[in-house]
Amino acid sequence: MPPAPDDRPGPSRNLAVDFCGVSRSYGRVRAVAGLDLRIAEGEVVALLGPNGAGKSTTLDMVLGLTDPDTGTARVLGTTPADAVRHGRVGAVLQTGELLPHVTVGELVELVAALHDRPLGVDDALRTAGIGDLRSRRTTALSGGQVQRVRFAVALVGDPVLLVLDEPTASLDVASRAALWETIRGQAQAGRTILFATHHLEEADTYADRIVLLARGQVVADGPVTELTGATRGRTLRATVPGADLDRLSALPGVRTAEARGEAVVLHCTDSDRALRALLSTGPSARDIEVTGADLTDAFLALTADPPR
Ligand SMILES: Nc1ncnc2c1ncn2[C@@H]1O[C@H](COP(=O)(O)OP(=O)(O)OP(=O)(O)O)[C@@H](O)[C@H]1O
Ligand SMILES: [Mg+2]
């Protein structure tokens, strides 16, 4: 359920993540540039944005793996490093290999031993959907199984906050859906979940809220419906025999026109005016469809580089 607007994190709610004016540069690259991000406990938040937008750098700072150059980063009411040290944060990172020369069970046991109140190893493996892989060597796993082992490792400390950097990258469709069901179960069990993804439909399906990053800054933050509403534009699609794209793009209410096989697609500023104009100038237009902006449109519009 998306949170109601007045249900957003306020000072009275416990904040899992509280970033205020956070910046982080690597040499001359400003990976994160003045980021404000507050996530309440219990929220499921997707971090979206093009390659290089600063998602992993942001998650690395949540995990205390790197520090902000400026601004303040708090996690679960303390410093990120402290929250991680006390086992209150679990993570699946974008890079890094599993420890070799051990079995899956031994690896998860090792991690459990680092925590004060871990889950049982069998419990963590079962939740991650790999109860049958306990005695398998970590070097003898498929890509999807490796992701599930990483998930078990993230889970075994019984964390309040789960941080997942593209957890389903490189998984097939069925494995992705299965892992998301597992993650959703963890959200229902009350864990706070912050994940980065490039799959817009995953963000749409599994997050309460989407934070869209571009050039190290938040360019949009809210429930999916708010984001798609933010771009306003609607699309009108029709079959227009002998279509003249220049003439169509000059119609009132139309921003641009493009050909898609037999059909034309009109990106509109005002789809009602565009539809009336289309029918009055070309009565042979048929198979007309008007659709609202979808998440892909919103993503592209909101993350586009500003004109120079
Ligand atoms: N260790 C590093 N040294 C130098 N530059 C870095 C380093 N890590 C990240 N960067 C740069 O910082 C910017 C943000 O990178 P980051 O990995 O946070 O992006 P991202 O949103 O996670 O991208 P992707 O979708 O490709 O995973 C990029 O320009 C990247 O090249
Ligand atoms: Mg990344």
TrEMBL record:
A GO molecular function held by the record: ATP binding
Residues annotated as signal peptide: none
Subcellular location: Cell membrane
Keywords: Antibiotic resistance, ATP-binding, Nucleotide-binding, Transport
Domain ABC transporter positions: 17-240
Membrane topology: Peripheral membrane protein
Coiled coil: none
Descriptive protein name: ABC transporter ATP-binding protein
Natural source organism: Pseudonocardia oceani
